[in-house]
Structures are given as C-alpha cells and as structure tokens.
Description:
The structure holds three protein chains of three kinds. By secondary structure, chain A is an alpha+beta fold. Chain A is built from four helices and three strands, in the order αααβαββ. Chain A has a domain at 8-45: Histone, subunit A, CATH 1.10.20. A two-stranded antiparallel sheet of chain A has the order 2-3. In chain A, a hairpin with a 2-residue loop joins strand 2 and strand 3 (90-94). In chain A, helix 1 crosses helix 2. The longest helix of chain A has 17 residues, at 24-40. Chain B has a single domain, classed as Amidase signature (AS) domain (Amidase signature (AS) enzymes, Alpha-Beta Complex). Helices cover 38% and strands 13% of the residues of chain B. Chain B has 15 helices and eleven strands. Chain B has helices at residues 8-17, 22-40, 48-63, 106-113, 156-163, 180-186, 220-230, 272-287, 303-318, 336-347, 350-363, 369-390, 414-418, 425-430, 459-472, and strands at residues 43-46, 75-79, 117-122, 169-174, 189-192, 212-217, 259-263, 291-295, 395-399, 434-441, 447-453. Chain B has an eleven-stranded mixed sheet, sandwiched between helices. Helix content of chain C is 39%, strand content 19%. The chains are: A alpha+beta, B alpha/beta, C alpha+beta. Chains in contact: A-B, A-C, B-C. At the A-B interface, helix 1, helix 2, helix 3 and strand 3 of A face helix 9, helix 10, helix 11, helix 12 and helix 13 of B. Strand 1 (65-66) of chain A pairs parallel with strand 2 (55-56) of chain C. Bound molecules: zinc ion.
Amino acid sequence: MSADKISSNETRHIAHLARLALSEAEIEDFTGQLAAILEHAKDIESLNLDDVAPTRHALPIKNVMRSDEVRKSVNREEVLRMAPETQANMFLVPKIIGED
Amino acid sequence: MEIIELGAVEIAKAVKSGELSALEVVSAHLSEINEHDGDVGAFLLVMADRAIERAKEIDKRRSGGEELGALAGVPVALKDNIVLQGVETTCASKILSGWEPPYTATVIEKLISQGAIPIGKTNLDEFAMGSSTENSAYFPTRNPVKLDRVPGGSSGGSAASVASRFAPIAIGSDTGGSIRQPASLCGVVGVKPTYGLVSRYGLIAFASSLDQIGPFAKSVDDASLVLSVIAGHDGMDSTSSRTATYEHAPNESDISSLRIGVIQEMMSDVSNDVLGVFNQSLDALRSCGAKVETVSIPAVRYGLSSYYLIAPAEASSNLARFDGVRYGLRVTGADMNETYGLSREAGFGPEVKRRIMLGTYALSAGYYDALYGKAQKVRTLIVSEFARAYSDFDVLVSPTSPTVAFGFGDKSDPLSMYMSDVCTIPSNLAGHPAMSVPFGGGADGLPVGVQILAPALSERVMFQVARALEGASTYMAKPQWAH
Amino acid sequence: MAIEDEYIITIGLEVHCELKTNTKLFCGCANQFGSEPNTNICPVCLGLPGSLPVINERAVEYAIRIGSALSCEIRPSVFHRKNYFYPDMPKDYQVSQYDEPICVNGKLELPSFPKTVRIERAHMEEDTGKTTHVGTSGRIHGADFSLVDYNRAGIPLVEIVSAPDLSSADEAREYVSELRAILVSTKASDGKMEEGSLRVDANVSVRPLGTEKLGTRCEIKNLNSLRSLGRAINYEARRQMEALSAGQSIRQETRHWNEDQGVTSALRSKEEAYDYRYFPEPDLTPLDPDMDEVATIARALGILPPARRLRLRELLDGELTRSELEQVQTCVKFDLDEHVLDAVRTGVPARLALARGSNELASYVNQATVDSFEVAEFPRGKFIEVISLESQGKVSSTQAKTLLSRIASNHNEEVSALIEELGYKAASQDEISELLDRLISENSMEWERLCAGENQLAGFFIGKAMKITNGKVNGKTLASEMAARRLG
Ligand SMILES: [Zn+2]
C-alpha cells in the first residue's frame, strides 16, 4: 500500500494514462489536491476488510442476457454528421504513431 | 390558481378533462421561463418550439377522443445528461458542445409515451460532478429562493426549474446526492430510487454502479406519479431489475405503525439551523404516531472516502470515450496521442479533470487493492449495517444536506465541497432508495430538506413517510421574485 | 553446431476466434463480414454517451461450447474493462474477461506429436473496429492519417490462451490447425483465417540448451495464416538466438510480423508502461452458467476431431503404421472422414477407403485451395461408387484413381459414363482364363512354387498381368481365378 505521497512525476504519469495534456500549473494543483483527497481516504485504508467481499452491484442480479436477434442500426449519416472529421464514410483520425 | 402553481397530477387531470389545454400549460411555463430564467439560469436549452408542437399534438389527440397518458400535457425539464434524439445534449461540458444524440433515453421515451412534454434541458455540474452547479462549463445556476446562493448540484438546473415554476416536474440523476441535495437546497421534493428500478439507458454515465435517474416535483404525490411512469424493467440496461416496479399509491400516509430510525452518524457535521428544522420534523413524525429512535450505523462514516474512490474510478473510464474521434470537441495535434491529450484538456473543466485524475490513480497498477478494491468492500460493510438497522426500523431519516444553500465560491476547496454529500452518499453505495422532502426554513429562511432512506425497493413505505412529513409541514419555498 | 541446436524454443499461442453469432456481443447489430463501412453500428457498439451493453446469450453458449470442446472447466465469470486509448475502440476501453474467465484449465492434443498442450483459459471479449492507415506506406508507421470503420467493433471473440507448451513452428502450426478443426466442429466459428475469424498472437522465447529458466518473451502479432505463423516463429526464434549468442539481451516487447519482408519488428517505438487499470464492468452482471445447461451444451457438441480420428483408427485392426496414422489425420483435417466411414459402411475395405480418401481426395482439396481451409466438396456418393467398383475388382486401382481425378475436376461427371468413355469394361471370364494360361506358360517355375504354398508369388502374377493389360485387368478377379486353378 503506497498511496502515501504523490509526486508531480506521478501526477504527470497519471495525466498521460488519462490522456490529459495538463499545464504545469495544473500538474502542481492536482498533485496537492490528490494528496489531500487520498489523505482523507486513509480512514478506509486502515480498515481490515480481508474477509469482506466487494459489492460490485447494489442488486444481486446475474446472467442478464438478451437473445441473439438483429436490431435496426442507427442511421450512419446521423452519426457521421457528429464526427469531427470523416472520409469515405469512415472516421478520420490523425496519424496514430507519431515521429519520435 | 395560476397554471404554474399546479402540480403534475392536477395538470394531467385538467388536460384530460379539457379544463386546460396542453398548449395553455406549456405557454404559461414558457412565459415564466422567458421572464425569469435569465436570472436563474436553470436551462441550457429551452425547447420552446418542440414543446408547443407537442402540446398541440396532445390537444389534437384529446379532441380526437384518444386516451391520454398519466402525465398528459405536463411539461418536464430534463437534466442535460440524458439524451433525446436530435436535441443537443452537452452534460454542461465544452467537450460535447453541439452534440445531437441519434437516440433517446428510455426514461424520456416513457415520459413522452405518458403525455409529458419535454420543455428544456437543464444545467448541471459538468458531467454531474459537483454539488453546486458552479462546475457547469457554460454558466452557474442560481438558487431561485435566493439568487445569491447556489441551487446545489449536480442537478441544480432541474431543482431550480421546479422551484422557479418553470416546470412542474423535472428529471435528474443522483450518483452521490445529485437529486436530493439540490432538492433540499431549492425546497422541492427529490427522489433517488433503488438502483435498478429506473433504466439508465440514455443517461450519460458518471459512475455506473451508483447513478440512478429520479424525479423532482413540488409535491410528494407528483414525484410518486413520475416515478411510477419511469420505473420498470428495460432490456437495454443489464442492471435494470427484471421484477421491480413502482405503483403510485396517492393516499397512503398513515405511518402510525412505523418504526423510524434517526441515523446518529449523519447528525455530527450538521449546522444548527438545519438541525433545528430536522428536530421539528422528528417531532412531526412522532405526532403522526411513528416510533422515532436514534440508530447508529458506524460504516456510513466511511461512505465519503469510499465514494470518492469508486465514483472517480468509474468516471475515469466512462469519460475515456470523449476523445475527439467520433463526436465532440477535437483539438488536433501532431498525432493521435497528442490529439487525445489536447482535446480532453480543452474540453473538460477542472473538476472533471480532477476526478479523472483521482480515478485513474485509484485504478492504476499497485493501488487497485488498497483504493478501489477497498472502497468496494466498504460498500459491503455499509450494506450489511443498513440491513441490521432495517431489522429494527422500517425507514431511516437524516438531514439531506448539512447546511442550507451556500454562496457562490464558498466551497472552492474540493474536499469541503465533497463534504456536502456526506448524508446522501451512503444510499448510493448501498443502492437503496432515498428522497428529500422540504420541511422548513433554516438560516435566512432558506429551505431545509429531510432525507428519508428505505431498504431496497421499499419506495412505497418511503413515500408514505414523505406524505406524512409533507402533511405536517406548512413551509413552502417561494422564488425570490414572488415575494 | 548450428545455432538452432544450441537453444530451446518455447511458444505460447493466443488465438482470437470470432464467434458466428447473428449479432454483436453487447448489441443487436449484425455480425457480418464485408459490409459497407459503418453500417452495422448503433449507440452501443459506437460507445455513444449514455448507451449500455447487454450480453448476447448465444455468444455465451458458444464460449461454453468452445470451452467444453477443449476440456475446460466452465466457471462463473465477470467482465472487466481494460482501459487504454486507441481509435478503433469506441469506448477507449475493451470489455473483456480478466481474472475470472468463463473457461479455464483445458487441453488440446496434437495429433502427430506425442504432446498435450495445456489451455490456460478461454475468455470472452469484444472485437475492435478496423483502422485503415492512409499514406504512402499503407502501414501504421509513416501513415498520414487513418480511417476507422466500427462494423467489427463489438463482434464477440473468444480468446484461447495456451500454456507455453509448444517448442517448434511445426508444433505451433499443428496446434492452430487442430484448434481450428475443433472450433469449426463446435459450429461456434467458421475458422476462416483469411477473413480474420481466427487471429493468432505468438509468444516466443528461447533459452540455451541445458537451462531451465524461460527466456524473455516477445509477442508477435498479425499472424493471419499458418504459413505466417510458421515463418514468423522461425524468424523470431532465430533473431533471439542470434542476439543472445552475440551477448545481447532480449527486451520484452510486442512485435509485428511483416509478411512481405519476412521479418518481425518492434510495434511501438516508444517505451510505454502498460497499465490497463482493469476493473469489473459495472454495466454488466456476472455470468454464472447453470451446470445442467453446460452439460447439455457439451453433450450436444457431437463428435470432435480427436474422437473422429479415433473412429477412423478403429476401422483398422491392430497397430497402425505411421503412414496409416497420417492418413487418418489427413482425412479428419480435410473433413473427409465421413466419406471414408460411409464407404466402409457400404462394404468397402477400410484400408482402401482410407487410402483413397487421404491420398486422392485430400490432394484434390489441396490443389484447389492452397494454404486455405476449404472443406472438401467431393460428392460422397460418387466416391463410394468408384471405390466400391475398385474393391469388387470391376475397375483397377489405376482406373479408380483416374475416375476420382475426373470427378474432382468436374463434380457432375457420372461414374458409369466415364467408365464407358474410358473403355474400363470389365474383362470376361474367358479373357481372364486366357490371360492366366499365358502367364502360367511363360512363368511355369513360379507357378509351381505358388502351388507349393509360396503365396506371396500371387502378387508377382498380378503384376505381370497388369503390365500386359496396361492396368486394365482386375487384380481381384485374377486372384480368384488363380486360387481356383491351384485347387483344381
Ligand atoms: Zn451495435
């Protein structure tokens, strides 16, 4: 368990995982704020809950499934119209791997 | 009585009987919006033309002798994180500016099928993250009761729209108190149903395991009627209960045989004015014949920590899709990764980024067990302690919010804002129903709500207690301009 | 000593198998290959805000079929979210089973190597969309931009993960080939590698001979045929051996197989720590299959390739020769075992049916579709007709092969018409008698020895007769004529 102190480098790494191009000022702010929030969360970190099962759903339901029947799809134009950029009825994105 | 003072039950009855036309009802509300929403800022989008058109349709159907639904001609304000086909839905975020969904949420379909008329999309804290509606990327909403105060949040626009008489009912979403807290601060009724009772299909997710849609109304009966319309199984939502329904039972208010527990742990951080009103409500419940006693549920103290790990964790994943590829804002960079970073940096506001960061951290390698995993176990603890309490009590009560409506900028520190949800969060973690009913005036005469908590799928008894409280209260919050 | 002899190769395979459901895993969009771009899409598989997934029950049934066919334990399972950003993933997370997969601890027996490969797990997940890289290179590196089609996004997959039990490219190929045969026979998959229904990733490592600790592994992606799989493993193993021999270390990384250049190359240039932040998908409920239903599904699977091979082996008495074992494998591999079984049922000797099935029929299948898995379409009735005639001695083996070859090139040819056309008329009793007279007079010594009990000389006479008649004599008829003379 090492949610002790969070460094600005760690904040930078988290921002990268979350794909947020944070400014340096934001990195600094968030480093402090995350530390404070995590400090508050210490109260549960110290609880011994080894024998307690996690609750993932409020209702104990399982095996919810649907039958394998085709349903009408949405109108392609209505969807593509909302896209930042398209070409040949596909979503256009910038090159995926940049130059190093 | 003025049209805008009528409740949903009364409007539907009048429209069905022909006493009022749907068009008259819609027009009255639209003109109230025109006149006062400039001050309040409840709506991000007013759907005037659509609402008028829809009202005319309903009137035509009535004159054609068609059967009208339970909410015939009732205007409804919709929180702007619930999708309606072809109507801009933004979650009060820049990242979704201009986005018109190609489909409609199940709740909205249900409301429309019962004759309700969507009148506008209401403001919220961006992606429902906040307790004051100050986090809207567009503008803050003001509390209609006192315009220099926040309406609460995140469903502040929906609460304010009902409190302002812009709509008799509104729909919100509640992840940690986002319906109940603004209902309390604006002096209206707000209900968070049992998780799984109302379909989430079409609700833009904040924290999937906690989110639940529910109604705002001026009266308990109106809220009950709306809940009966939107409740029920939906095959599009795997977490929707297959068996649960809610039936509107308007006359049930006898609580003389009920045992009501007062949650001790939820009284500790409450301000004196709120405590005063809350104690009056306990007296009222006693004089209705209920047995009222204090109960201790120690685990609820851990609710806040658990919530502020689970909700951001789920949110960090739910909000990944806002990446500038298929819809929404794109800020193009040198390559895809840079484009992701720039688009999301520009599109999300500070609170959203903060929670994405927190949630990403809580899920990241090495911390999962200590943070997210632990928080899920705390839920189990809370559920089991509630279960123990419900073996002695039919319902539980607490103040909804520790304070009355606060001022803009009063809670600039994130943690102090998070504390606003301390009484409401445990119900979301447990998945239980809870509601806020206005009972009296606290500091500056601002509304104070009482929270009623009930076991899973026990909405019926919860509403019984709510009716008793409503009956015992003479308090009625009024918009500032109505004084 | 060659470098290959100084190292041991270890291979584990991850095979992604698309399930042949009508609809996608979490929505009602058609599961269809080759549609117009972005036509099989909806709010769910496009990850539109507010949409929610619902599990396709048939996909679960198919996963159970696959698990049962691989002798897996079928367990309660949970879907997780695997979080990472990529444009072909509409939600920027993939819904996949993580530490609680539906199938675990199975096994697969390689038909021709004495080896059982452990299956660690087979789990369900959704497929991603398809990205086309536009630019001069046509590849991801050096592309100007990319185009995304989400028709494939959300198609149900089962990922079958083997233990690192394979030790050569040949074993790996045979593993995939056998796995494919099993998948096809469960009817959960069409097994079409060329359409991407089966996609293989190979984890390859090498270690010096005589050492125990596994070497650092590299994962090779984009192996779209058995040929690529074999070539890529050989290339990659050699690359690693050479690096180690040169004193370099192997970096654990994902590598891409380039079919044209015949090389693997590191897929991501930037060092990036992967942190998928798995957590249970809160929009779905856990799966807890009813064990009676699982048993019903398993029972309904029918006969699988290992049992199909056994069925053929049991047609023959005694220990099978190596070539007979190969014939059995070939027949099952090309779905010709039913041809053989049917022929045997009508009275054709098993060895003949097996030989004609594995040699003649299989070679026609092979010629028609090289390196593809197309199933034999050879008309079963005509196959049986020809080899029945052969076994009754009405046509010779050479004639039978010619007939089969003609039918292979045109399935509509009638056997009787072909016999007429080719002049394969059976010889009369008189003709046989005359032929035998001639043989006895020309080879009187051998005939005496045969009559004295050297039975193996019967073949000598049949061979001579074949030569004289250009293969038109029926060996069987001749043999019985010889037997009659010897007794008489
Ligand atoms: Zn779909």
